[in-house]
């Protein structure tokens, strides 16, 4: 025996069905708009992606270029900068190349008689590989360090902060 | 260091370390060579920006001195002033068309206006490297 659907039941179902579609049609996009910004901020933050693959980084510091937008008064420009990047066990270390003395650019192994140190050509400043300034040379503190992240296999650089390798 | 309020106060405090002044020279004559001059002005700005980044802690890069009718009096007066201020090395930075006494760093005139951004950066960086080597040579004297 088949169950009969009354006219009243049929209309109820039909109304509820279309009603729920309409409610879903309105609330889902609103919810997306509300939640999306949270995800966008969480995924990338202020990290700048570079063109260096994480697995290409060795324990020898290399220059890694990156560019970002800089606003200077009314003038917006694309600035290119670089970091010294190397691998230390499981960690990737990225140092700012700006000397902590008066702001020149330091180079890795720039002084041929000290090939395993960062060297500042302005006043012969030295830093060891962990960014620590060598006492007796002009620099007044260890090199600043970038936060690093893995962005789909590529290195991403974040905020610049104090050196975390040197206590 | 540049000639701006914050850098000038660093210059005063750290003068023992900042011993070299760079004076860029730019011709601004409104004659048939105006376009060449304008090109050189842009080039000199790019070179000084790069120099500042590399050697910020030891160079004082003054504002460019504008030269009219090849009159170098202002440049020479300024050089004397910087000498009296106490700079050990005072160096003019200009293209090869200047006839000026004293220590001079020359850069090649590159027609950068028609170049792509990447090409431009590459050419300028080559030029900067030459200038940097010359500066280090002055320091090592």
Automatic annotation (TrEMBL), chain A:
Query: Which InterPro entries does its entry note?
Result: Rieske_2Fe-2S, Rieske_2Fe-2S_sf, Rieske_Fe-S_prot, TAT_signal
Q: Which SUPFAM superfamilies match?
A: ISP domain
Residue ranges occupied by any Rieske domain in the UniProt entry: 85-157
Alphabetized Pfam families for the sequence: Rieske (PF00355)
PROSITE patterns in UniProt: RIESKE, TAT
Q: Name one GO molecular function term.
A: oxidoreductase activity, acting on paired donors, with incorporation or reduction of molecular oxygen
**Keywords in UniProt for this one?**
2Fe-2S, Disulfide bond, Electron transport, Iron, Iron-sulfur, Membrane, Metal-binding, Oxidoreductase, Transmembrane, Transmembrane helix, Transport
Q: Membrane-spanning residues where?
A: 12-31
Q: Which domain of life is it from?
A: Bacteria
Q: How does it assemble?
A: The main subunits of the menaquinol:cytochrome c complex are a Rieske-type iron-sulfur protein (QcrA), a cytochrome b (QcrB) and a cytochrome c (QcrC).
Functional description taken from the UniProt entry: Component of the menaquinol:cytochrome c reductase complex. The Rieske protein is a high potential 2Fe-2S protein.
Write out the similarity annotation: Belongs to the Rieske iron-sulfur protein family.
Identification of the protein by name = Menaquinol:cytochrome c reductase iron-sulfur subunit
Q: Which organism is it from?
A: Aliicoccus persicus
From TrEMBL, chain B:
Q: Which Pfam families match?
A: DUF2487 (PF10673)
Protein name per Swiss-Prot or TrEMBL? YpiF family protein
What is the native source organism of this protein? Answer: Aliicoccus persicus
Q: What is the lineage of its organism?
A: Bacteria, Bacillati, Bacillota, Bacilli, Bacillales
């Amino acid at each position: 025996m088949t169950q009969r659907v009354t006219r009243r039941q049929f209309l109820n179902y039909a109304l509820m069905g279309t009603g729920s579609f309409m409610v879903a049609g309105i609330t889902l996009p609103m919810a997306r708009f509300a939640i999306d910004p949270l995800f966008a901020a969480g995924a990338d933050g202020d990290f700048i992606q570079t063109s260096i693959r994480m697995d290409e980084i060795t324990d020898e510091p290399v220059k890694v270029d990156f560019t970002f937008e800089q606003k200077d008064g009314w003038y917006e420009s694309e600035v290119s900068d670089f970091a010294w990047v190397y691998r230390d066990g499981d960690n990737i270390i990225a140092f700012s190349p700006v000397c902590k003395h008066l702001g020149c650019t330091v180079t890795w192994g720039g002084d041929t008689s000290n090939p395993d140190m960062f060297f500042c050509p302005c006043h012969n400043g030295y830093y060891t590989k962990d960014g620590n300034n060598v006492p007796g040379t002009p620099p007044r503190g260890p090199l600043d360090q970038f936060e690093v992240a893995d962005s789909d296999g590529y290195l991403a650089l974040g905020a610049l902060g104090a050196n975390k390798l040197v206590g | 260091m540049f000639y701006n309020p914050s850098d000038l106060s660093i210059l005063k405090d750290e003068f023992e370390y900042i011993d070299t002044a760079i004076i860029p020279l730019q011709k601004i004559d409104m004659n048939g060579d105006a376009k060449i001059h304008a090109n050189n002005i842009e080039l000199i700005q790019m070179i000084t920006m790069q120099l500042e980044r590399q050697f910020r802690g030891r160079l004082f890069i003054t504002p460019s001195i504008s030269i009219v009718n090849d009159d170098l009096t202002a440049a020479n007066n300024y050089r004397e002033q910087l000498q009296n201020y106490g700079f050990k090395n005072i160096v003019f930075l200009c293209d090869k068309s200047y006839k000026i006494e004293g220590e001079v760093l020359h850069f090649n005139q590159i027609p950068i206006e028609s170049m792509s951004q990447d090409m431009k950066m590459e050419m300028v960086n080559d030029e900067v490297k030459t200038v940097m080597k010359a500066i280090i040579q002055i320091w090592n004297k």
